[in-house]
Amino acid sequence: MTPAPAVPQLAAFRTWCAEAAGVPLDAPGALHAFSVAQPRLFWRTLLEWTGLPWSGSADVVLTDGDVRTARFFPDVRLNYAEALLRPLAGVPDDAPAVTAVHAGRPADTLTRGQLRAEVGATAAALADAGLRAGDRLVLVAPHAAGTIVVALAAAALGAAVSTAAPDMGAPALLGRFAQVEPVLAVLDRAAMGAGTADALLAGLPTVCRLVALDDLPPAAVPTDRLADLVAAAGPSPEWERRPFDHPLFVMFSSGTTGPPKAMVHGAGGTLLEHVKEHRLHGDLTPADTLYFHTTTAWMMWNWQLSALAVGAHVVTYDGPVTGPETLWRLVAEHGVTVFGTSPAYLQLCQDAGWSPAAHVDLSRVRAVLSTGAVLHEWQFDWVAEHVGPVPLQSISGGTDIIGCFVLGSPEAPVRRGRAQARSLGLDVAAVDADGTEVVGAVGELVCRNPFPSRPVGFLRDPDGARFCAAYFAEHPGMWTHGDLVDLDADGSARLHGRSDGVLNIDGVRIGPSEIYTVLRGVPEVADAMAVEQRDPDRAGGTRMVLLAVLRDGAELDEALRRTIRRRLREQASPAHVPALLVAVPELPLTHNGKRSERAARDAVNGDPVANADALRSPGCLEAIRAAVAAAGSGPAAAAGTGAGDPLLRAVTALWAEVLGTGGIGPDDDFADLGGTSRQVLSLLRRVRLDLGADVPLPVFAGQPTPRGLARAVAAAGSPADGGVVTLRPGTGRPVVLVADAWGQLNLYAGLVERLATDRPVLGLQPRLTGPDGTHAPIEEVAAQALERLRAAQPEGPYTLAGYSFGGLVATAMTTALEAAGEPVAWLGLLDVRPPRAALDPGELAAQRWAGRLRTLRSGRALAAVRHRLVAVPAGAPSPAAAADPGVRADPELAFFTRSEAVGEAFRPGAVAAPVTYFLAEGSRAAVRGTLTAWRRVAADLTVVDVPGHHGDVDDDRVGMLSAQHVGTLAERFSAALR
Amino acid sequence: MPPTAPAPAPAAGPAAPPGVLTRLVDLAAGGDALARAAAVLDPAELARARRGRPAVHRRRVLLRAALRAALADELGVAPGAVPLHADPSGRPRVGVPGLDASCSASGALGVVAVGRRCRVGVDVQAVAPWTDDVLDEGWLARAEQEALTRLPAGARPLAATRAWTQKEAVLKARGTGLRADPSATVTVVGRAEGVVAGWTVRDVPVPDGWVASLAVARDEETRR
């Protein structure tokens, strides 16, 4: 076995290119830039560098510059089987070529020499069975050595091969193979379902002969056992070299977008692309053992096959995956160095809590490849922790190009969640709807230049119309692949799913992968699929339906619905909140395990599903139809009516639920619809719970329509985010009120209403706790409050006020603003008792004398606080409580007392702005002798008496903000503002 | 079905002593009654009624006509001639010094109140089943929440609904409605009569299944 080279093959190839180009290509991205800027030089250098066997002339690299029509190397002739099986320098013929692993019986290995001999004998047998160059052969067999032998034998003869997995049903097989019009069928009937082979052959009238890999009795067509044919065959016919684009494989699109497209891939394009990817991007050498977990129905089978051209040892497996350990054990036992798998399998292992490195020896593994779906960031962490310090290479391309657009690189670092590099020679870009390139943002994946592994064409597409429509209709002159991708300036990429999985909700494009990422944080949801549905109530409108597969024991009750909607709104956006949320037992997956949004979309629309045979379990479609129909009959079915934007739609859905009626227009008045004031409160509660926005009553009352409420929700932001709430619209610089120790703004409602000013009044609700659930110091609370405020009011002078705890935050904000050179026009403190930390010993004594602690910490005060506890929705303990088991019983009380503790620990900094201290009559005794602490901080302090008590904790007495006294406060507050 | 409205109080002009007239209104009245009611409304009132869905339209027409009828009896004029307007907030405003009006509806029952030399607010509400969600809706003060949770479960629907109607009555009397925070107006849970935030509050007798509250303050003591 040859040791792996110290420098990657990419480096050697770069030297070749630099010489050919006459310029150095060492800078990051320089080689890729060269490869797309000078395609002729690049591809010819590649062909030469690979040492692949070919004849003819490579002078003409490319016939034209159009990705749709260009042909590569029209004068080059080669043979795919020869290229894979030729003797390689440094690789002895007794080196292992293919090791076939089976479940329940020992593995068997073919050396390169044995494989070459078997392919030769089989080619002779197939030729005797009538297979000729230009014919097509279908091959249904498991991922095993015999399948490789047959495919290479057909390729050696110049026949095209179309493979499929034996566990597929006859309809799915016929959906593919009917278009192929094969002359020969090679089947492993023992591995196929009962009757499947007969049904398949009955549907393929062009098949004149069955070559059986099994020992079953003859079928309805002339049948030969391959072993018998091989035994009777003469010498291998010559493996003739044929044109570069001579058909090699017939592949199929996933088959969920109408009848499967039968695409023909040429020998030269496939070979050159695969060798390029294996050697330059994967740095695969004869020292490597590759196992890619695939079936014969997926292009990764063809891709891994080409690793033989590199001299690598290929492992196949035809058994089932019975648990997370199956493939890792295979990898360990057979010394696999490069393991290819899927996000789904990695997730299976992670979810099962099975750590491969803890159970098996993975010391030979040098890379893990993953493709087939979006690979999430957390999976990189899992591989690093549970597999080892090997690169996790996210690779992505497609059957359509029988290769990759983005993949690994031996030189680039691996960034979590991203593929490392663009495929060399392919001008891959993300573009917006106009075809303009976008960098660092999600766009449609396109390839803007010709590439050799483009299909030669489609079958049954004589004028190329289907081929053209499939890839070139959306952006003329570019190959549009149908994937969403974001590409960074460093060339790294992240796939975001199929663009036909993209939801277009009334013109707003929504990538569902963000939805899935958010739902990952909802443990009850095992899997989900978001699809768009024609709005039953609005012609031409669309709405989002979220299909959720729940874990065992979970139920899609109101609480879970609320959690899902709220998480989506907070962590994604209001646009990501579905109009309809239904639980389904299963999602539609294709035979390759790919998710079929298209099938789900047809099902939710009640349309016939174009190709249900392409699905692993077509029965799930009926369950989806039933679930959507059942959900659609409730009042929430009217949710989408009259609503253009998603937030408006969500708000309208809540109206429909609260009012128990449908057909609500965006500008309908709540009262006109029969809504009572009592129902307003229910509605606003639902808005708070489902949409995470605290909309104050006066704001709602000002515009009691779905549109008005949606606007208010948008303006409110999320309370958890410390959003800025418009408490009252107006003109000029805003008056900003900071939330109290509960994080609430409602207590200011009476004051806001009565303020005699034209200026807008804003409310700030900073988050009081840090990410770990503990209370943040006042300064931190103030800092994030300021960040929010500056988004709403970029520059001063600022006018700030707050009650009690909120006043401390406002003080800290003032200090910070002034320190940053921003003017503060006025600071209003509503009975903000000085924090204990700010008191000197004399003041502390005075405070004790005043008996403040007796009031504040008395049993009566705590009882008053406990009143708040009943207001907490069940099952929503505050983060503070979760962090401290000792206070679980009284989470809200703990939250409040911690806010208090944070407040008491605050040492206010200097404030230059004029400060008005509104001293509640009932607090006079309590603050006696301590106001000097405020005077030390604020040079310009005016104390204004107002009637009432402090009213927050000791609220058995009438507070300064109560209806009774707030009028006077508002009057004096307004006067101070002027 | 609510009972027929009680006999009107003896007609009296604005010079009469302070007092409050309340009437119940059957909002399920049929086509004829609706047509008669609509005939006394002014164009603005009709337009506002028409904006509502059919049930809302009926309620607005019947309630407004009943309010006009009650005021007409006070003033001794035809219902259509009562100078009745609306504040920008929607609160009824009588164009005669010394007269105030308020009205409310819930389901098939309406209540109108006319205050003579006093400010009035009235609210009626069908008794709603109790759920703990009510505690989370933000309109109950802490003391009210605690009092409600101390009540036996069977007493909570009525008590919570009355807490609401009393608050609403006060807020409507004050003229703010829900633009003010209802939790700042604290009621004594379980008490049908008393003083709430300076307003004299009492129940208006209504059929089973409803609660109605009236808030009153004499003009000279009205807190705004």
UniProtKB/TrEMBL annotation, chain A:
The keyword Ligase applies. InterPro entries: AB_hydrolase_fold, Acac_CoA_synth, ACP-like_sf, AMP-bd_C, AMP-bd_C_sf, AMP-binding_CS, AMP-dep_synth/lig_dom, ANL_N_sf. The keyword Ribosomal protein does not apply. Keywords: ATP-binding, Ligase, Nucleotide-binding, Phosphopantetheine, Phosphoprotein. GO terms for biological process: lipid metabolic process. Residues 642-717 form the Carrier domain. One of its GO terms (molecular function) is ATP binding. Its cofactor is pantetheine 4'-phosphate. SMART domains: PKS_PP. Belongs to the ATP-dependent AMP-binding enzyme family. PANTHER family: ACETOACETYL-COA SYNTHETASE. This is Acetoacetyl-CoA synthetase. It comes from Geodermatophilus pulveris. The lineage of its organism: Bacteria, Bacillati, Actinomycetota, Actinomycetes, Geodermatophilales.
UniProtKB/TrEMBL annotation, chain B:
The lineage of its organism: Bacteria, Bacillati, Actinomycetota, Actinomycetes, Geodermatophilales. The keyword 4Fe-4S does not apply. It comes from the Bacteria. One of its GO terms (molecular function) is holo-[acyl-carrier-protein] synthase activity. One of its GO terms (biological process) is lysine biosynthetic process via aminoadipic acid. Belongs to the P-Pant transferase superfamily. Gsp/Sfp/HetI/AcpT family. SUPFAM superfamilies: 4'-phosphopantetheinyl transferase (SSF56214). This is 4'-phosphopantetheinyl transferase superfamily protein. Keywords: Transferase. GO terms for cellular component: cytosol. Pfam families: ACPS. PANTHER family: L-AMINOADIPATE-SEMIALDEHYDE DEHYDROGENASE-PHOSPHOPANTETHEINYL TRANSFERASE, PHOSPHOPANTETHEINE TRANSFERASE. Residues 119-181 form the 4'-phosphopantetheinyl transferase domain.
